[in-house]
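pipeline stage [seq->struct] | target=N-acetyltransferase | organism=Streptococcus koreensis | residues=224
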Amino acid sequence: MRINEFGQAIGDALPDFTPGRLPAIERIEGRYTVIERLSKEKHGADLYQVYGPASPADMWTFLFKGPAHNEAEWDRLLNDFLTAQDRFYYAIVDKDSGKALGTFSLMRMDQANRVIEVGAVTYSPALKKTRMATEAQYLLARYVFEDLGYRRYEWKCDALNQASRKAAERLGFTYEGCFRQAVVYKGRTRDTDWLSIIDQEWPAIKERFEAWLDPTKMVNKSNL
């Protein structure tokens, strides 16, 4: 904490601070999974199984978009993802099978303050609660902090979506509070929980991720 000439506490100076860059991921490969820039040709057919009529109805309760009731509807939804100006969508691919099992995005980018959010997290049942899902989140967070140099990484969810909040906390996000009546979606009101990781916390969180993902290390696999 610094004190200015008026005796007031002020934040630490950032003399070399510059705005953040936009994401430019093409492919990030991990041990179990691969993150790739979303592509209609490469991922469209796989993701129709995730977003299409065969998907469990209850997975869409807290998501803004989906499901697609037929291939034409999926094509329009996928085009919306690919042409979005305010977010970058990525496919989460099973490294062994090469099959896309879900998506997420980097969004609400505040380049001036180096703040970014991971959102629109959509997992197929085959991806939920797997090492692939955990590793995908690790790879994206590592990219945000180490490649892009962002200071704050956010996660937001419907306050009633306890599964999402618990998942975020398992991944190392800290609950910061609830924004009441923040959003109206699907004809209903939403209070939004805010969680974040900041750059100072990332090294310890990264170490925990890497220990959990390393098959040679004996760690509590229930923690992530």
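stage status: PASS
auto-comment: The chain has a mean pLDDT of 95. The domain at 23-213 is CATH 3.40.630.30 (Aminopeptidase).
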